[in-house]
Predict the structure of RNA polymerase ECF family sigma subunit.
Amino acid sequence: MSDVEEAITRAHHEEWGRVVAALTRRLGDLDLAEESAAEAFATAVERWPVDGVPPNPGAWLTTTAHRKAIDRIRRENKRDDKQKAARLMYGDEAPEPLGAIDDDRLRLIFTCCHPALALETRVALTLRMVGGLTVPEIAAAFLVREAAMEQRITRAKAKIKAARIPYRMPSADDLPARVSGVLAVLYLVFNEGYLTTGPDPAPVRHDLTAEAIRLARLVHALLPEDGEVTGLLALMLLTESRRAARVSAGGELVILNEQDRGAWDATLIAEGHRLVRERLVAAAAGAKPGRYQILAAINAVHTSARDVRETDWSQVVALYDQLVGLDPSPVIALNRAIAVAELDGPEVALATVDGLAARLTGYRPYHVTRADLLRRLGRSSESRKAYDKAIELAGNAAETSYLKRRRDQLR
C-alpha cells in the first residue's frame, strides 16, 4: 500500500464521522450528508495521488463534501432548493443554540439513537453514520445477513427524514431515557475497534477505540451520576489498557491469559479502577449495578492480577452470576463458563458450553471456547473440528493465525 493509499484509509477511519456529522448539522439530511461525504472521499482517491495529501485532510474532506452537497442541491430546479443552496454557501442560516456539550458527533449519535427507532436500528445506524463501519462489519456485529442490515439502515434514515427527527442534543429531562441506546452504540464501536470483524489489515483499530472512549467521556461529563455511563467508560478504559499486548509482533492475536502484563497501560488501569471503586461506593449505598458496571468490575479483577495465576476466579464467577441475573443471554452464559473452567475445571464448563450449541451455532467465540476446553480435556480430534469451525467463522487475520497455530499444535 502506497503512502497516499494509507493516508486515505487513515482519513476514512478518523474523519468519516466528523465529516458526516458536520454535514448533517449543516444540511439536516442524513442521506445527503452521507452521499456527499462518500463523494468527497471518492474525489480524494482521484486527487490526492496527483496533488498530494493535503495538510489537513479532515478540513479538505469536509469542504469538498460541502461543495458536493451544494452542487447536488443546485441541480434541482425548485426555487426553494436554490435558496437553500445559497444559504448553505454564504452561511445566512441562524446557528442552533448549543447544548451543555457541543460536539457534532455526539449530537449525531443522539439523533441516530432517537426512541422512534428500534434499539438495534439505532445502534446499526450510528455505527454506519458516526463510526464509519461498513455494512458487512455491522452485519457481523449483529449476526445478521448483509442485505437485511442494509435494509435496516436505509429504513432508519427514511424514518428520521419522514418523522422530522431533529439533529440536536435531547433536553435534560429526556437524557436518561435516551442514553441506553447511546451506550450500546459506543460499546459496539469500541468492540469493533478492539478486534475488527472485517478484513481490515489492522486487527486492532485504535481510531475506533479512541473515538468510542472520547465520546464515552463526553457522555460521562454530561451524565456524571449515571452508573451505567460510568461503568461503560471504566470498562472501555480497562479493556483498552491491554491493547498493546493484544497482538504479537508477528501479527497473531494474544489471549488474555498469555499477554505480557508489563505492557498494559498503568494509567488507564488506574483511572478504570477509580471509576469502578466509585460505583462500588454507590452500590454499598443501595444503588443496583447495571450490565456495564458489572463487566467493568470483572475487568478490574483481571487487571488487578500481576500474573494470571493470581486472578481471583471465584470473584469473577460471582460477578458473572450477578450479570446472568440481569442478562440471561447465551453469550453471557458462555463467558461465565470460561471463568468456571478456571475455577471448577474444563469438564464442568464444557457441559454448560455444549448446552448452548443450538443458540450459538454461528457465533465464533463459542467454537473457540469449545475447542480450548476439548483441548484441555485431551479430546484432540473433537478439538480440531471445533478449531476448524472457528477458523471458518473468523474474520480477522490475527485471530485466524492464532487459531490455526493452536489447532496445528494438537496431536
